[in-house]
Design brief:
The structure holds three protein chains of three kinds. Chain B contains 13 helices and twelve strands. In chain B, strand 9, helix 10 and strand 10 form a beta-alpha-beta unit. Chain B starts with a helix and ends in a 6-residue tail after the last helix. By secondary structure, chain C is α/β, with parallel strands linked by helices. Chain C is built from 17 helices and 23 strands. Chain C has a six-stranded mixed β-sheet with strand order 7-8-9-4-10-11, with helices on both faces. Chain C has a six-stranded mixed β-sheet with strand order 17-20-21-14-22-23, with helices on both faces. In chain C, a hairpin with a 2-residue loop joins strand 1 and strand 2. The longest helix of chain C has 30 residues. Chain C starts with a strand and ends with a helix. The relative contact order of chain C is 0.11. Classes of the chains: A mainly alpha, B alpha/beta, C alpha/beta. Chains in contact: A-B, A-C.
Chain lengths: ~325, ~375, ~500
């Protein structure tokens, strides 16, 4: 046996270039730079590939098409940062749409009656999700798996699966087809939800509490954060935003149907994760989420414009999403 | 959930007012004067069944299934029992089918043991059929959720000495008449022809149309699109056709919208069933596109859209109640040992603005709801 | 060897040589690079330049598994055990005896684990569930786990920080057994007396570079302390550490006014069996006792984490009902928990965010965060507590243990804190930072707050406290004034005797 068992050898530290330090700082920074890059690349590729892609009208299309996912994903961002998950959003959306349409059909045919009913129904499902998760300490994955099923069932039961026709022109204009602030209504609502989300998550103490609850629930508890209450509110917010999305969808299709947007929760979660949220909580951004949703929406749009076959679209979409997450992750 | 008639009326009145306002702004579509009006309803659509069965059979007509008085007595004397296995009971279509079956069977004293709903799940349907076999009925009427996985289970039905009648399609490998008595379906290709004919009347010479097709290999939807293509090639070879496929019905709005963006030359759209047509309409509204749309199948919302006289011009409707009645007749023929045709086609029904109320009654066997009559009243005289 | 983290250069050409059969102590302040070096040795981190050799042959590894394969076994400060498995199953993890068909041979597993424990003279039951063991025993399991298999280099990172002196002795015996098998041991610690008790040689790191390697027998504490803290405060700090005891013995910090701030009378809950305790304004009150005696639980009860089932808790003489930590914080109670990474900090968040967390309403206007004020006060706190960090936005995860602990202190270092509860406040904290933390504690008391300190380090309690209460089996058995403490030895005996008396009484 030699004299030396273990030895670490000293060598000189090579000087590292400023550029690589900058690159590392960017890569390590909390902001999803790579995602922005991915989005730009996507835009450039599609612009060259399709003559129809690069136009205001088409961008408005993408904006409108991504509205539902974007709005719901903003709520989901709060839930996921809080270390939870909400699988019930698509069902909540369907139920909220039914509530809005039925309220206008049965109570009073005013747009705000429908709006209140839709948002209220969504928030109520969120409240149930949040309460069961926090008070009974059931994992939110299971709770919302339950409400995913139950809310859909309820939406189908209220009219025996029949659609409810909406006849309020004002409602159509405000939520679906008109212009607000010079923008198509769905885009305006997406923008409003985004701004609200940014303010609430990044500039309000509610956001700070959400981050702490997801980052380290015990440390948050030891810092006096009422995790249960904060988490419940995150679910309520998500439910209400699913309600808002339901208003947009039902106004656009002039009816509420109980079988709409099945499986949308997966697109929503994909957008949020693509946008830089950690599935384990404590990390994420509203603008990242919006970008995640836009990337998926742009992919959907661009692939149809290019005339790619439907099964091929699914394959390409899946591959690009996984690649984007791999690149975005540090 | 029920709405009291006065409330409905009030609501419908406001719909109508709104619809009128909307139409006045949007009715400046760039379509030929011949659109719809140039089509004679009496001669619209095929006079006989045009499609072929899944195995290339020629269609038999419903008339072949009539029972003589003597046969009817035989059926009554048999005290037969029949079970039903559906893919779902949540669609108007399936409810009307079941209603048609039960009404007709009842007339001849045949009882229905139960209606199982597979909720589109293969394993649920397999269990449903096995359970039904255990009840020892004399016959089973069923729509298969899937063509391959359920086939072995369906084979057990005939092995148990139970007569089997299919609606809509036949699982792979089942042989007539050994393993099933008959299959009754709509004339999907004929339905497609109706949609094609009306769409063609709305498109100028040399124009282009878009087909919003279901990208999953499914007999009845394939037949519809095939019907449109073949009719166009034969009767309007000047019209060019472009096609987009969707596999997820919840994404039609996006896909159809993008399809129209990428193909601004499209002057008319055929959508493979009514919900994709409605989703296409919603994308068109958002993108300020106003081109004629036709489809197959009739629902309340599509009926209202047709009644309004908007872009949705026509649909070729199935007659699920009548199909149900035909299934019941085929079953009873089989039960008393008569020969039954492999495939019976039930003729299509063309629905346009001028006959939408009456068609609704024909298809749904009930009076049209207030929303529909109000939309129709508001669109007089086009609708009546 | 060089290593950088997000702009922080943790190691700048460090070398270390360990001989077979020697215990080599590694000393240094927090942030000096000890943890980084160990993480490199264990394969958690890669290094930018340099080399590692074992038995003269260069080795390279990119993962902990490869490092283990090469014969380096590391026992971490943060435990890496699976709580739901037994001691035996943890020890045999990944080297379970299996039958020919891949089935687990459970009996053989337990037998092997038991043999191993006996051989090393370690008092652990291989069938005990790790999750239910006291911390010290979990730590011993961890060490045993590292010793399983072919080990050439054993790295112990602060192994004694949570051990009582009896348990410490067991550990040292175990280390001696290992050394006899010609294994090289790298022993990281903050406790200088241990260096003299156990090590053959000692290497000191400061700011990511070697300061020197000494033969333990030829050096003394003064030299080592000077080397650790560096030329800047060498004299001052060394003096502080060595003479602190004498210094403070002479001038007790007499409470300015003898008002009772916090009182517990017969407090009973799931872990406490009638606690009587009173904490005065401006008093530093120690809680001594063995691990599992209920010291920590007293703090948790005061902080509202454990509901009170019987007895009374008074604040300023008025009976209180604590409704969770939020309610306790509302009333000016603050807790610096034992497990700062698990309980005190959100590691992935910035210093700033951790700092403002307990006082979000204060840092907001109509619920909107006042970011300017937040940053400003965080910067002030970073300066005040001399936290070594690039800035308020630095992620807490990138800080060293001592600086992390200072961030936890910073959270509560404000005028609203009236009762400061400290659980092992200096565990894993280096000499310099420890002294600074003592300063913070004294300042808090001076400004009128009451401080309740739990510590396994009796020297620390004697140094800091005005009174010390001895906790045995969920009960305070005695409260000693400053003139009754005696020295650490004496206090230790007192605790042991109380323990035995309680056992007999029960």
């Amino acid at each position: 046996m030699t004299d030396r068992v273990a030895r670490t050898v000293e060598t000189s530290a090579p000087g590292r270039s400023r550029a690589s330090t900058l690159a590392q700082t960017l890569l390590r920074s909390e902001w999803p730079w790579m995602l922005y890059l991915a989005f730009v690349v996507l835009l450039v590729v599609f612009s060259f590939a399709s003559p129809w892609f690069l136009s205001i009208d088409n961008f408005l299309n993408i904006g409108r098409q991504t509205t539902l996912v974007s709005i719901v994903a903003i709520g989901m961002t709060f839930v996921i940062i809080a270390g939870q998950i909400d699988l019930s959003v698509a069902s909540t959306l369907a139920l909220s749409g039914m509530a809005a349409a039925l309220a206008m059909a049965h109570l009073a045919n005013f747009w705000f009656v429908g709006a209140l009913a839709g948002l209220g129904a969504g928030a109520l499902v969120g409240l149930i999700n949040g309460t069961l998760t926090t008070r009974l300490a059931i994992p939110s994955f299971l709770v919302t798996l339950g409400t995913l099923s139950a809310a859909r069932g309820l939406a189908m039961m209220v009219t025996d699966t029949k659609p409810v026709i909406i006849t309020n022109e004002r409602y159509f204009r405000i939520f679906g087809e008109g212009n607000l602030l010079g923008l198509p209504a769905p885009i305006a609502w997406t923008l409003a939800a985004t701004i609200g989300g940014v303010l609430l998550l990044h500039y309000n103490i509610f956001g700070r509490r959400i981050y702490a609850a997801g980052g380290n629930p015990i440390a948050a508890l030891y810092s006096g954060i009422q995790i249960k209450r904060v988490t419940t509110w995150a679910f309520v917010l998500t439910g209400a935003l699913a309600g808002l999305a339901a208003l947009v969808l039902s106004a656009r299709s002039h009816a509420a149907r109980p079988d709409v947007v099945q499986g949308m929760e997966l697109d929503v979660i994909a957008s949020v994760i693509l946008g830089g949220c950690s599935l384990f909580g404590g990390r994420g951004f509203i603008l990242g989420t919006l970008l995640g949703s836009l990337i998926i929406g742009t992919l959907n749009n661009g692939l149809v414009l290019l005339g790619v076959s439907s099964p091929m679209q699914l394959i390409i979409k899946g591959a690009i999403i996984v690649a984007a997450v791999a690149f975005t992750k540090r | 959930m029920n709405v009291s008639p006065p409330v409905r009326f009030a609501l419908a009145a406001s719909v109508a007012a709104g619809a009128l306002a909307l139409l006045s702004s949007a009715a400046l579509a760039d379509v030929p004067a011949s659109c719809v009006k140039g089509v004679d309803l009496a001669t619209l659509g095929p006079t006989s069944i045009v499609g072929q069965g899944p195995h290339g059979e020629k269609a038999a007509s419903v008339d072949m299934l009539k029972l003589s008085d003597a046969d009817a007595e035989k059926v009554k004397a048999g005290h037969f029992k029949v079970g039903i296995s559906m893919q779902t009971v949540n669609l108007d279509w399936s409810q009307l089918q079941v209603q048609g079956i039960t009404d007709t069977l009842k007339k001849y004293g045949v009882s229905v043991t139960g209606v199982a709903s597979a909720e589109y799940q293969v394993d649920k349907q397999i269990a449903d059929i096995e359970n039904t076999i255990q009840q020892h009925p004399d016959g089973i009427i069923s729509i298969p959720v899937d063509f391959t996985a359920t086939a072995p289970t369906y084979k057990k039905v005939s092995q148990a000495g139970i007569k089997l009648v299919f609606m809509d399609s036949i699982p792979t490998g089942l042989e007539h008449p050994k393993e099933y008595a008959s299959m009754i379906s709509a004339d999907s290709q004929g339905n497609g022809q109706i949609a094609a004919q009306i769409l063609a009347s709305c498109v100028d010479k040399g124009g282009t149309i878009g087909l919003v097709n279901f990208g999953v290999d499914y007999f009845s939807t394939n037949e519809r699109t095939k019907g449109v293509r073949e009719w166009m090639q034969k009767n309007r070879p000047d019209i060019k056709m472009k096609q987009v496929d969707f596999t997820d019905p919840s994404k039609v709005s996006q896909i159809a919208g993008d399809f129209l963006t990428a193909n601004p030359d499209i002057k008319g759209v055929f959508a493979v069933w009514d919900q994709p047509a409605l989703d296409t309409l919603s994308a068109m509204r958002a993108q300020n596109i106003d081109i004629p749309v036709t489809t197959v199948d009739l629902g309340l919302q599509s009926a209202i859209e047709i009644a309004k006289g908007g872009p949705l011009k026509a649909t070729g409707s199935q007659r699920p109640y009548d199909q149900g009645a035909a299934e019941a007749m085929a079953m009873m023929n089989a039960l008393i040992g008569k020969e039954t045709p492999a495939w019976v086609g039930v003729q299509s029904l063309p629905v346009v603005q001028s006959n939408v109320l009456e068609s609704f009654k024909t298809v749904f066997k009930k009076d049209p709801p207030a929303e529909l009559t109000d939309a129709c009243n508001a669109a007089k005289p086009g609708c009546n | 060897m060089t290593k950088s983290f997000g702009g922080v250069r943790a190691l700048r050409g460090v070398s270390l040589e360990v001989r077979p059969g020697e215990v080599h102590a590694l000393l240094g302040e927090n942030g000096a690079g000890k943890s980084t070096l160990i993480k490199i040795l264990s394969g958690v981190h890669s290094f930018d330049s340099g080399a590692i050799e074992i038995d003269g042959a260069p080795v390279a590894f990119n993962s902990p598994a490869e490092s283990r394969e090469a014969g380096i076994a590391v026992v971490y400060q943060d435990l890496s055990l699976i709580g739901s498995l037994s001691v035996g199953a943890n020890l045999m993890l990944n080297r379970e005896p299996t039958s020919r068909f891949g089935f687990l041979k459970k009996r053989q597993l337990m037998a092997e684990a038991e043999d191993f424990l006996k051989q090393h003279n370690i008092p652990l039951d291989p069938r005990a569930n790790v999750g239910s063991l006291p911390f010290a025993y979990r730590q011993m399991t961890e060490i045993c786990k590292a010793l399983m298999g072919r080990v050439r280099v054993l790295v112990l990172d602060e192994p004694t920080s949570a051990l009582t002196s009896d348990e410490e002795q067991i550990l040292f015996d175990a280390v001696a057994t290992v050394v006899r098998q010609n294994v090289g041991v790298i022993y990281v610690t903050h406790r200088l007396n241990e260096v003299f008790r156990i090590s053959d040689r000692v290497t000191i790191l400061r700011d990511g570079v070697n300061v020197g390697t000494f033969n333990t027998a030829e050096t003394d504490m003064k030299t080592l302390v000077a080397a650790i803290v560096g030329p800047k405060h060498a004299t001052a700090e060394a003096k502080a550490i060595l003479e602190d005891e004498a210094l403070h013995k002479g001038q007790p910090l007499a409470p300015s006014d003898e008002r009772e701030l916090l009182g517990l009378t017969g407090v009973v809950n799931d872990r406490l069996r009638g606690v009587d305790l009173s904490l005065m304004n401006g008093e530093i009150h120690g809680l001594a006792g063995l691990i599992g005696s209920g010291r920590t639980e007293i703090l948790e009860t005061v902080f509202g984490l454990r509901p009170i089932e019987g007895g009374e808790l008074r604040l300023d003489g008025a009976a209180q009902h604590m409704r969770g930590p939020a309610g306790a914080i509302e009333k000016g109670v603050a807790l610096v928990p034992e497990d700062r990474q698990g309980q005190g900090l959100v590691l992935d968040h910035s210093i700033e965010r951790n700092f403002s967390l307990p006082r979000l309403p204060y840092f907001s206007w109509a619920s909107w965060v006042r970011r300017g004020a937040e940053t400003e006060e965080t910067e002030a706190a970073i300066n005040r507590l001399s936290i070594k960090a690039p800035g308020p936005s630095t992620r807490v995860r990138n800080l060293s243990g001592g600086n992390q602990q200072k961030v936890v202190f910073a959270k509560w270092n404000n005028e609203r804190t009236r009762i400061l509860l400290l659980d092992e406040p200096t565990v894993g904290v280096d000499v310099g930072a420890r002294e600074e933390i003592y300063g913070l504690i004294r300042n808090a008391a001076r400004s009128g707050a009451g401080v309740l300190v739990v510590s396994s380090d009796l020297h620390e309690l004697i140094l800091l406290c005005d009174r010390i209460s001895v906790v045995v089996d969920g009960r305070v058995v005695a409260t000693l004034g400053r003139d009754e403490f005696g020295d650490a030895e004496h206090l230790h005996q007192f605790i042991q005797i109380s323990q035995i008396e309680q056992g007999q009484a029960a």
